[in-house]
TrEMBL record:
Family: Belongs to the RecF family.
Gene: recF
Coiled coil: none
Keywords for the protein's UniProt record, in alphabetical order: ATP-binding, Cytoplasm, DNA damage, DNA repair, DNA replication, DNA-binding, Nucleotide-binding, SOS response
Name this polypeptide is given: DNA replication and repair protein RecF
Residues of the RecF/RecN/SMC N-terminal domain: 2-340
Gene Ontology MF: a single term: single-stranded DNA binding
PANTHER family xref list: DNA REPLICATION AND REPAIR PROTEIN RECF (PTHR32182)
A Pfam family hit: SMC_N
UniProt record, GO biological process: DNA replication; DNA synthesis involved in DNA repair; double-strand break repair; SOS response
Keyword DNA repair recorded: yes
Species, as recorded: Lysobacter spongiicola DSM 21749
Function of the molecule: The RecF protein is involved in DNA metabolism; it is required for DNA replication and normal SOS inducibility. RecF binds preferentially to single-stranded, linear DNA. It also seems to bind ATP.
Length: 365
C-alpha cells in the first residue's frame, strides 16, 4: 500500500499544501516548527481517525479558521486480481464533528476509513504504547485487528453499544430484568472480542520477540501476554458481570470485561516496564509497531505505510541504523522526517526529498 497524494487545508500551520510522494522511501526535511510532523500527522489521522498529538481542540485546525480538510489517494495490490487498485478518502472537521468520505461515498463511521488505509506511525509520543495507560495498548490491538479480521469491527461496535447501554442502566439504577438483554449481548460480543485479541497477541508475540532481538538486543528475551479484563481463568464473562453488578451499581459503570483489557510485556533482563529507560521504551514500542506491520503484511499481502518522525532525535545512531535496515528491507512506503537531508543508513539509496518551509512543501530531488 502506498500513498500517491496528500492534500491538506487549514491543518495546523498549513493553509493549503500538497505532497505527491513516491512508493518507496520519502524524506521530509525542514527547520524546527516548519511543519514536517504535521504532514505525518495528517496521514496518521486518515488511518486512525485521531491525531497522535491531541484532540481537535488542541490546535489541529489552523488558527483563524474553523474547518480543516485532509484528502489522500493511495494504491494497494488486490490479491484476487494481482492488480493495483486506487482508493481515495477525505476527512473534514467543521466546527463540531468529523465527516469522512471513502471512494466517493460518505462514511457513517470513521472506523470504515481507518480499516481502509493502513499507516504505522512512530513518533516522539510512541513510548506511551509501553509506559502509557492500558487504553493505548487496547487501541493498538484493536487497530491491528480492524486491518486483518473483517469480522472484528462489527463485533467491536456491538460490544461498545451494549456497554454504553449497560452503563446507562447502572447510572439509572434500572431494575435487574432490564440488564438481561444487554448483559447477554455484552457476553456474546465480549467473549468473541476477547478471543480475537488473545489470538492476535499470540500471533504477533513471536514477531515481537524477534524484532526486539534485532532492534534492541541488549534487552534480552521478551514476550507478550494478553490480559483479558476479567479473571477469565476463574470465571466466565457472564459470571464476572453478575458478580460485579452490586459494585457497578455503586460506581455507575461496568468494572469488568474486554473494555478493561490490556497486554503485558515480559522482560527477562528487567523487573518490569518501570525499569526501562525512555529510549528502551521507545525501542520496545517500535518493535511492537513493526511486529504489527509484519503480521499485517503476512496476512493481507500488503505492507502498511510507515511514518517515522524525527528518528534522528529519538534513537541513537546504532539503533537507528538497525531499525532503518529492517524497515527498508520491507520495500514498503516510508516517510522519515529530519532537520537535515543527511540520514545515516541511507547512503546509496535514491529517494525524493521534500522540503517544508513557509507553509509549503517543495520537492528538492
Ligand atoms: N492550529 C495552528 N494554527 C497555526 N499554526 C499552528 C497550529 N498548530 C501548530 N501550528 C504551527 O505549525 C507548526 C507545526 O510544527 P510541526 O510540529 O509540524 O513542525 P516540525 O517541522 O515537525 O518541527 P520540529 O522539527 O520542531 O519537530 C509550528 O510552527 C506551529 O507553531
Amino acid at each position: 500500500m502506498y500513498l500517491t497524494r496528500l492534500d491538506i487545508r487549514n491543518f495546523r500551520g498549513f493553509e493549503q499544501t500538497r505532497l505527491a510522494p513516491e512508493p518507496g522511501f520519502n524524506l521530509i526535511t525542514g527547520g524546527n516548527g516548519a511543519g514536517k510532523t504535521t504532514l505525518l500527522e495528517a496521514m496518521h489521522l486518515m488511518s486512525y481517525g485521531r491525531s497522535f498529538r491531541g484532540r481537535v481542540r488542541d490546535g489541529l485546525v489552523r488558527g483563524g479558521t474553523d474547518q480543516l480538510e485532509v484528502f489522500v489517494e493511495w494504491r494497494v495490490g488486490d490479491p484476487a486480481t494481482d492488480r493495483e487498485v486506487s482508493h481515495r478518502a477525505g476527512l473534514r472537521h467543521s466546527g463540531s464533528r468529523w465527516e469522512g468520505r471513502l471512494d466517493g461515498q460518505d462514511v457513517s463511521n470513521l472506523g470504515e476509513l481507518c480499516a481502509a488505509l493502513s499507516v504505522v506511525s512512530f513518533e516522539p509520543g510512541s513510548h506511551a504504547l509501553v509506559t502509557g495507560p492500558a487504553e493505548v495498548r487496547r487501541r493498538f490491538v484493536d487497530w491491528g485487528l480492524f486491518h486483518v479480521e473483517p469480522g472484528f469491527l462489527p463485533l467491536w461496535r456491538r460490544y461498545a453499544r451494549a456497554l454504553k447501554q449497560r452503563n446507562a442502566l447502572l447510572k439509572a439504577r434500572a431494575p435487574m430484568r432490564h440488564f438481561e438483554p444487554w448483559d447477554a449481548e455484552l457476553v456474546l460480543a465480549g467473549e468473541a472480542l476477547d478471543s480475537y485479541r488473545a489470538s492476535y497477541i499470540h500471533e504477533i508475540a513471536a514477531l515481537f520477540s524477534e524484532l526486539v532481538s534485532v532492534c534492541a538486543p541488549s534487552l534480552g528475551r521478551t514476550c507478550l501476554e494478553h490480559v483479558p479484563g476479567w479473571r477469565r481463568e476463574e470465571v466466565s464473562l457472564a459470571d464476572a458481570l453478575l458478580l460485579s453488578r452490586d459494585r457497578d451499581l455503586l460506581t455507575g459503570h461496568t468494572s469488568v470485561g474486554p473494555h478493561r483489557a490490556d497486554w503485558r510485556i515480559c522482560l527477562a533482563s528487567l523487573p518490569g516496564r518501570e525499569a526501562l529507560s525512555r529510549g528502551q521504551a521507545k525501542l520496545i514500542a517500535l518493535a511492537a509497531l513493526l511486529s504489527q506491520a509484519e503480521h499485517q503484511a503476512a496476512k493481507r499481502g500488503s505492507w502498511p505505510v510507515f511514518l517515522l518522525d524525527d528518528l534522528g532525535s529519538e534513537l541513537d545512531r546504532a539503533h537507528r541504523e538497525r531499525v532503518l535496515g529492517r524497515v527498508l528491507a520491507y520495500g514498503a512506503q516510508i516517510f522519515v522526517t529530519g532537520t537535515e537531508a543527511d540520514v545515516p543508513g541511507l547512503t546509496g539509496i535514491e529517494h525524493p526529498v521534500f522540503h517544508v518551509e513557509h507553509g509549503s512543501v517543495q520537492r528538492l530531488q
